Amino acid sequence: MITTDFRYACHPNDARKYDTDEIRKQFLIENLFLPDKIQLTYSMYDRYIVGGIMPVKESLHLQSIPYLKSENFLDRRELGIINVGGKGKVTVDGEVYELNKKEALYIGSGAISVLFSSIDKNPALFYINSAPAHKHFPTKKVTKENAEIVHLGEEKYSNKRIINKLLVNSVVETCQLQMGLTELLPGNVWNTMPAHTHNRRMEAYFYFDLEDGQTIAHFMGEPEHTRHLFLQNNQAVLSPEWSIHSGSGTSNYSFIWGMAGENLDYGDMDIVAPNQLK
């Protein structure tokens, strides 16, 4: 079963006027994983799709949705998958790819059949991002052994973290989709600080591995007009191109960043110093 949500893009001047309820309605994606269901959010930010797939008793087929007006989901799209649960497998046109937790799979446009399954009693949780694609690139599995890994941050700023660049152009060929996974070390809580924007790309953040009873404050908005959202475990937030995307938790956690837009230059960022934020 596939459930689809739709989100319009917002002008930054309008977003300044949103109260807490409206900010959450426009940008927060709360329920990504439900047993034996595919949950998708179709966004008008670069026509990006964010979704969660939780196969328990059966395999789940990623079928096309009405917004795409295509016979198959990937006729004009590419897909990135990162497993954040138990061991699972993705079957792409008959070829099986097993994914452990924090392993990724890229599927290029043109794939017809994409099936998601769990392998044991602990169900897989497949977090997916999808963007329009103008060219086919081959399907490729990426583990941490294949990833480009960067260590950033300092203990004194509470932002020591490991960035695992999984589906980026230095690791796998894509049209515009990029995804990676950042892990905050114990005692560190700040991500993407100093903050930045990039007018050439939108982004989505998915937070997971958060300790029970804890929360994450995700900061968004124009650098001089910031807002915040409190998130729980396994929730995501859409980040427009004009918005910062930064967060701080009451304990350490991991998060997946995914983006699409004008270019594939990971370093294309407009940095905002911490003391410039308002």
Describe this protein with a few key phrases.
278 residues, mainly beta, Jelly Rolls, seven-stranded mixed beta sheet, seven-stranded antiparallel beta sheet, globular
Structure write-up:
There is one protein chain. By secondary structure, the chain is mainly beta. The protein has a single domain, classed as Jelly Rolls. It has 2 helices and 24 strands. The strands form 5 sheets. It has a 7-stranded mixed sheet with strand order 1-3-4-11-6-9-12, with no helix packed on it. A 7-stranded antiparallel sheet has the order 2-21-18-23-15-14-13. Strand 13 and strand 14 form a beta hairpin. The mean pLDDT is 96.
Calculate the terminal CA-CA distance, rounded to whole Å.
Answer: 43 Å
Q: Tell me the CATH topology.
A: Jelly Rolls
Largest beta-sheet details: 7 strands, mixed
Number of domain units: 1
Number of strands: 24
Task: Compose a concise summary of this entry.
The protein has 278 residues and is mainly β.
Architecture blueprint of SSEs:
Layout (H helix, E strand, L loop, with lengths): L1 E6 L4 H4 L4 H8 E2 L7 E7 L5 E6 L5 E2 L15 E7 L4 E5 L2 E5 L4 E4 L6 E5 L7 E7 L7 E3 L5 E5 L8 E7 L10 E7 L5 E2 L3 E3 L3 E8 L7 E7 L2 E7 L3 E5 L6 E4 L4 E8 L8 E3 L6
Parallel strand pairs: 1-3
Antiparallel strand pairs: 2-21, 3-4, 4-11, 5-10, 6-9, 6-11, 7-8, 7-10, 9-12, 13-14, 14-15, 15-23, 16-22, 17-24, 18-21, 18-23, 19-20, 19-22
